[in-house]
Amino acid sequence: MSVRTTLLAILSIGPAYGFQLHGELESRTAGRRPVNVGQIYGTLERLVKQGAIEPGGSTSDGLPLYRISAAGRVEAVDWLTSIESARGEEWNDLVDRVLIASSIPDVDTLALIARYRDHWLAAAESANESASGAAPLGQDRLEAEARAALAGAAVAWLAVAEESLLAVGPESFQRGLSEVRPRRGRRPVAAA
């Protein structure tokens, strides 16, 4: 999971402050991949420098808000519709992306699931072909069997995700930013 792209996806909903984004990230990924709050603030600073987000005012008690820029929105939409992952991160990216996408208004999660299903079915076919052509007890065979098992698990999980979305309607998974204020977080520094 890229903290950068997940923060941009969440900011596509509206302006938020750092600790709020930390909570949103944790709740929208079901706490699967805990992120240090310091990493959130470091990423926000980099995103501002890179022009993907910009200052968005402040809360009533002075916490700085961040809002997504046009360039950041393009990056967020690209991530929310893509199925690309770094090697070795395919499973985690699949689960995180579907969980986050399903929670964000106006994202077609069913289309994302369909693209992922096609990808993983092709991966399963390729892995099965590799396994059938590999030596019976060799390393290549084990690796191909592992890829086939992962692809099968991905297809099965995507079926459950799709069924869940269709059972209640995809919009019932979508939500705005939480208004619940955390007990911790950066507090504004008094002006000198």
Features:
single chain, about 190 residues, Arc Repressor Mutant, subunit A, about 60% helix, about 5% strand, elongated
Describe this structure in words.
This protein is mainly alpha-helical and 192 residues long. The protein has one domain: Winged helix-like DNA-binding domain superfamily/Winged helix DNA-binding domain (Arc Repressor Mutant, subunit A, Orthogonal Bundle), CATH 1.10.10. Helices cover 59% and strands 6% of the residues. The protein is built from seven helices and two strands. The relative contact order is 0.16.
CATH homologous superfamily assignment? Winged helix-like DNA-binding domain superfamily/Winged helix DNA-binding domain
Largest sheet: 2 strands, antiparallel
Name of the CATH class: Mainly Alpha
Shape: elongated
* Helix vs. strand class: mainly alpha
Tally the beta strands.
Answer: 2
Give me the number of helical elements.
Answer: 7
Record the strand order, biggest sheet. 1-2
- What would the CATH topology be? Arc Repressor Mutant, subunit A
Q: Roughly how many Å apart are the termini?
A: 40 Å
CATH architecture: Orthogonal Bundle
Strand % is 5-15%
Low-confidence region ranges: none
Roughly what percent helix?
55-70%
Summarize model confidence as the mean pLDDT. 90
